[in-house]
């Protein structure tokens, strides 16, 4: 009888252990499923983008000069983590017509969030503008959802909640040209600028103008001429069409020349 009780006890303990194990497996699986679901949601994507922004000063930053073409000017910025881009940004300005800011957040090289903020002129004698911000979420390079908000001022826009955009109104297959941003940031390809001219503004101020055949140009304000500027001033035609490496400080859309040298 004692042997029977012992045998039953072993069976019961085994059964309870097996049930507990299965229960733990289900809980763990549920947590994994929940985690996957959370990681696939727009809220977790926003958390990810916010996390990138909080750490942005720790990333390698590359910034383009300010390009001008007609009434439009823009510049781009790339932030890299472990040699991989995690944020692309583009800031554009059309003067009285408005401006735009575009932000792209990437995870393992794939776009997960695109944010576009517009300031658009409504026309009329006095400059009035509408403000709009759109967010488009992606999962595994596939459109997930989009939302937007609108207001009559930038301050009101930040206080306005987002509303879901009808998926039929969104271009789900929109293509983003990150190579263009890379070229603009590193002044290559279509954005390869060369020396065009040096304009005298006053006895102490000059403007160094770079351009290319695509009608893009960048203008640097020179207040402290270095040896390169002095050589260009003495013989501008010797530098015509040559590539320059320029260091500058950007103040808004203005670039203040610091130093430069011929590119080799």
Notes on the protein architecture:
The protein is an alpha+beta fold. The chain is 28% helix and 41% strand. The chain has five helices and 14 strands. The chain has helices at 2-39, 42-54, 154-159, 178-185, 227-234, and strands spanning 60-63, 67-69, 72-81, 84-93, 98-107, 110-121, 129-139, 142-151, 163-164, 194-200, 206-211, 217-222, 244-251, 254-262. The strands form two sheets. Strands 1, 2, 3, 4, 5, 6, 7, 8 and 9 form a nine-stranded antiparallel β-sheet that branches. A five-stranded mixed β-sheet has the order 10-11-12-14-13, covered by helices on one side. Strand 11 (206-211) and strand 12 form a beta hairpin. The longest helix has 38 residues, at 2-39. The chain is globular. Residues 1-16 and 26-39 have low confidence and may be disordered.
What's the short version?
With 264 residues, the chain is of the alpha+beta class.
Task: Tell me the span between the first and last alpha carbons.
Answer: 95 Å
Mean pLDDT: 86
Number of strands: 14
Low-confidence runs: 1-16, 26-39
The largest β sheet comes out as: 9 strands, antiparallel
């Amino acid at each position: 009888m004692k042997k029977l009780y012992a045998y039953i006890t072993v069976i019961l303990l085994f059964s309870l252990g097996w049930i507990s194990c299965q229960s733990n497996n289900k809980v763990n699986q549920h947590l994994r499923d929940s985690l996957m679901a959370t990681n696939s949601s727009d809220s977790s994507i926003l958390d990810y983008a916010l996390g990138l922004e909080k750490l942005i000063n720790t990333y390698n930053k590359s910034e383009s000069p300010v390009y001008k073409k007609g009434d439009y000017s823009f510049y781009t910025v790339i932030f890299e983590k472990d040699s991989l881009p995690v944020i692309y940004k583009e800031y554009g300005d059309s003067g009285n017509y408005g401006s735009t800011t575009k932000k792209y957040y990437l995870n393992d090289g794939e776009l997960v969030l695109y944010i576009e903020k517009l300031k658009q002129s409504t026309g009329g004698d006095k400059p009035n503008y509408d403000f709009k911000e759109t967010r488009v979420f992606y999962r595994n390079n596939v459109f997930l959802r989009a939302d937007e908000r609108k207001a009559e001022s930038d301050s009101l826009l930040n206080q306005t909640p987002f509303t879901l955009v009808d998926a039929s109104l969104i271009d789900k297959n929109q293509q983003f040209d990150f190579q263009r941003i890379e070229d603009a940031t590193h002044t290559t390809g279509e954005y390869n600028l060369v020396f065009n001219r040096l304009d005298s503004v006053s006895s102490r101020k000059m403007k160094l103008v770079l351009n290319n055949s695509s009608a893009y140009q960048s203008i640097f304000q020179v207040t402290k001429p270095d040896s390169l500027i002095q050589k260009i001033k003495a013989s501008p035609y010797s530098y015509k069409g040559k590539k320059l490496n320029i260091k500058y400080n950007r103040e808004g859309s203005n670039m203040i020349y610091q130093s430069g040298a011929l590119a080799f």
